Amino acid sequence: MNMNKSFHYFLFSFFLSFFFVFFANSPASDFSNTSVQAPAPPLNMKAFDTPNDNGHSITITWELSPDDGAGKSNVISYEILRSDNPDSGFVVRRMVAAGVNTYEDGGVKEKKSEDYFPSHKNFYYRVRANAEKGSSLSDVSPPAYAYGQLFHTGRTVILVACVIFTVFTIMFIRKAKKGEELYIRPLAGIEAVDEAIGRATEMGKPILYILGLGTAADVATIASFTILARISKMTAEYRTPILVPCNDPIVMIVAQETVKAAYLDAGRPEMYKEDNIFYVTSMQFAYVAAVNGIMVRERPATNFYLGKFYAESLILAETGSVAGSIQISGTDEIAQIPFFVAATDYTLIGEELYAASAYLGKEPLLLGSLKAQDWGKALVMISLILGGLAASFHLDFFIKLFAVKL
Fold first, then answer.
1. Mean pLDDT confidence for 186-207
2. What is the longest distance spanned by two Cα atoms in the chain?
3. Strands 102-106 and 207-212: what pairing?
4. d(CA 124, CA 140)
5. Would you tell me how many other CB atoms lie within 10 Å of the CB of residue 95?
6. What is the CA 231 to chain-centroid distance, rounded?
7. Which of 69, 154, 235, 330 sits in a 20 to 30 Å window from 392, CA-based?
8. How far apart are alpha carbons 227 and 278 in whole angstroms?
9. Nearest CA to 231 among 188, 197, 260, 195?
10. Can you state the angle between helices 156-177 and 364-392, rounded to 10 degrees?
């Protein structure tokens, strides 16, 4: 019995020893299928200037490694390498994930910047496919350099729109110069100007014209200067005084010259009084307090608020309403338009302020430009309607016609 147990132990020990000795001396390839091989390299390297970016980058494309794709996990990333001399080696520019086969290599034009990217300089590129335990390099791409284009093809629709608007402008200006009657949509605020000035003349009271708090360089203030010239000419003809308190010295000087020129055009330069166009203060609410005092004391028959206004808009309009004045307002500050609409008799909304000079002056150049703007707006509205219908019926080709690339 003991002999049998000993024999069994001997056989067990023998086979166990044989097992360890055999597998310990066997190569890993004999029992493992985890052998590591480098992935196949990317193919068909291409490098070219990125279009429509003013020479800020070079686009690199390549074919994915055959080991990168659905059901394959050998490639985990790609490294883009760049050199200005292939013989001196390459530097890594960026790493992208597996499955990506394009990259834009670029930077800025400031030479002192670390990300400086020169134009008209040849660069060579390679792409390295990385696996868990191996990598492979593509061939060197042909040389490529970045350069600026004369025309941005992604903005063709803007060029077409500019050409159409220019044609409209020239066409309507010629018609206006020939004396043809151009229909202009009437604005209640402009139509009321004659009535407001006539009322002030009948009452023997002055007109108060406020240019707002903008500078002489603001578009709204420039438009207001043009309207001031038209109104000043009419007040000169009606012999009605006009008061223009200003909160900016430069605005005051321009306003004085504008009113003076208007009185000269009206043939009554002797009626011009420089003291009626005066500087108050540049402080917002101190200026408002001074103007409100003028309203309460002088009781002007008509108040014009045309220009750039801020938080003082409602204070001025309410005081003028209490004083019993006819009030005509206009501004391009969207946040202030509701206050003017609520507290004044007539309001020029947004761009109507810019068009007011054309309404008042009836000059061919201004009328032609205004008519061209109206036609341009009509085309935009038609395009919006057609675009909405095209989007509803999935007509992508029409929508792509208006695509703009920045």
1. 89
2. 147
3. unpaired
4. 7
5. 13
6. 35
7. 154
8. 18
9. 197
10. 140
Residue 405, in any domain of the structure: no
Q: Which residue has the tokens 């061939």?
A: 139
* Res 26: pLDDT: 42
| Averaged confidence pLDDT in the chain | 87
Of 221, 194, 244, whose CA–CA distance to 330 is shortest? 221
Say which residue the tokens 């207001």 belong to. Answer: 224
Number of domains the chain contains: 3
- Most confident range, picked from 86-90, 180-184, 301-305: 301-305
Kindly report the three-state secondary structure assignment for every residue of the chain: CHHHHHHHHHHHHHHHHHHHHHHHCCCHHHCCCCCCCCCCCCEEEEEEECCCCCCCEEEEEEECCCCEECCEECEEEEEEEEECCHHHCCEEEEEEECCCCEEEEECECCCCCCCECCCCCCEEEEEEEEECCEEEECCCCCCECCCCCCCCHHHHHHHHHHHHHHHHHHHHHHHHHCCCCCCCCCCHHHHHHHHHHHHHHHHCCCEEEEEECCCCCCHHHHHHHHHHHHHHHHHHHHCCCEEEEECCHHHHHHHHHHHHHHHHHCCCHHHCCHHHEEECCCCHHHHHHHHHHHHHHHCCCEEEEEEECCCCHHHHHHHHHHCCCEEEEEECCHHHHHHHHHHCCEEEECCHHHHHHHHHHCCHHHHHHHHHHHHHHHHHHHHHHHHHHHHHCCCHHHHHCCCCCC
Contacts of 300 (CB under 8 A, 6+ apart): 200, 205, 206, 207, 208, 243, 294, 320, 323, 325
This prediction has a pTM of 0.65
- Residue 138 identity (one-letter amino acid): S
**Domain range for 117:** 43-137
CB atoms within 10 A of CB 384: 11
> What percent of the chain clears pLDDT 70, i.e. is strictly above it?
89
Same domain, 336 and 191: yes
Residue 212 and residue 100 share a domain: no
How far are the Cα atoms of 13, 136, 182 from residue 140, in angstroms, in the given order?
61, 13, 66
Residue 30 is assigned to a structural domain of this protein: no
CATH code where residue 59 lies: 2.60.40.10
